[in-house]
Amino acid sequence: MKASRRKRSVESRVRRAAAAVGRVVRLMARLRSPQGCPWDREQTHESLRPFLIEESYEVLEAIDRGDGEALVEELGDVLFQCVFHAQLAAESGRFDIADAANTIAGKLIRRHPHVFTRSGRPITAAEKRRRGLHSPDAVLEQWERLKSQEKSEAGGRPRVLTGVPRALPALLRAHEIGTRVASVGFDWPRAAPVLDKIDEEVRELREAVTQSPARAAEELGDLLFSIANLARKLGVEPESALRHANDKFTQRFDAVEAHLEARGRSVHDATLDELEDAWTGIKTTPSRSQKRAGGPRRPSSRSPGRSSRGSRRRRDRS
Fold first, then answer.
1. Counting CB atoms within 10 angstroms of each CB, which of 113, 230, 294, 314 has the fewest?
2. Could you tell me the domains of the chain?
3. Residue 15, Cβ neighbours under 10 Å: how many?
4. What pLDDT is attached to residue 2?
5. Do 220 and 226 meet the contact criterion of CB atoms below 8 Å apart?
6. How many CB atoms lie within 10 A of CB 129?
7. Is the pLDDT of residue 308 over 50?
8. What are the tens digits of pLDDT across the range 262-293?
9. What local confidence, expressed as pLDDT, does residue 53 receive?
10. Hey, what long-range contacts does 24-32 have (CB within 8 A, 24 or more apart)?
């Protein structure tokens, strides 16, 4: 009975989604028509590129804030960008949004043989038990193996790191590279050896800063790459952790400015000792919001065992 109700609920959501996405497609086609919007009509894949990136980051901000209402809006903005790009492709006769949706649906079916048959029907419970994929790590290894097989059958030379976008933020790209090579067993067994590696990189950086700027830049890059790997081993998404640190620093420095202004001073005129005294006092005094919440929220303090599947290992959809 529960399964039947759940199926009806899914089918209802599918019909509602189809109608809603269809409405967006129709609106987008109108905007691009001769009777539509001059701005929309002059856009290209290249001109829209920064908007897709910006909207994606706004989704992340909504997630970080835990703002469900904003998340609905920002996901809609990302969907609009996808429909916009598909509309441009449809106008040139290459593909449309249905082709994009069918492509990802086919990929999800192929790479989840522990969930679906080749035709896309759910496998039986007995078959699911027989296939025995019960951990995220086992699923990730199967995903990478199937992806490599697909590329080989398509005539390409499969490489583990093929498809990691160079356009990713460097810290996120380092995290993804580490995740990819870990899926084939090239990884530290625990976080402790990564910490040792970081200590080694710090020592090398100390030496490099006395040699040349180019050498220092190289060693600094190695250190950042090792830190990204430590984040992965701890189950922390490094971009989120760094965003949190940026926000925390910004809030504290704003408080330093307010502290000095209340005393008739400015950060531009204050001495370093005054700035440091104000900073220390603010850092050791919890804010009202922290007191209400029981302390600051620190994404990096989550234990590896409690990390979500998404934050622990990301699967590349390429």
1. 294
2. 11-110 (1.10.287.1080), 170-236+308-312 (1.10.287.1080), 238-301 (no CATH)
3. 10
4. 60
5. no
6. 10
7. no
8. 999 999 999 999 999 999 999 887 655 444 44
9. 87
10. 24/79, 24/80, 24/83, 25/83, 25/86, 25/87, 25/97, 28/80, 28/83, 28/84, 28/87, 29/87, 32/87, 32/88, 32/91
Return the structure tokens found at 177: 């590279």
Expressed in angstroms, the distance from the first to the final Cα of the chain is 38
- Angle at alpha carbon of residue 102, lines to 99 and 108, rounded to 5°: 145
Element of type H or E holding 223: helix 213-234
Beta strands in the chain (DSSP E): none
CB 40 within 8 A of CB 31: yes
Higher pLDDT, 107 or 8: 107
- 228 neighbors 194 (Cβ within 8 angstroms): no
The one-character DSSP state at 211 is T
Q: Give pLDDT tens digits for 222-239.
A: 999 999 999 999 989 898
Question: So what's the pLDDT on residue 309?
Answer: 33
> Cα 252–257–259 angle (5° rounding)?
90
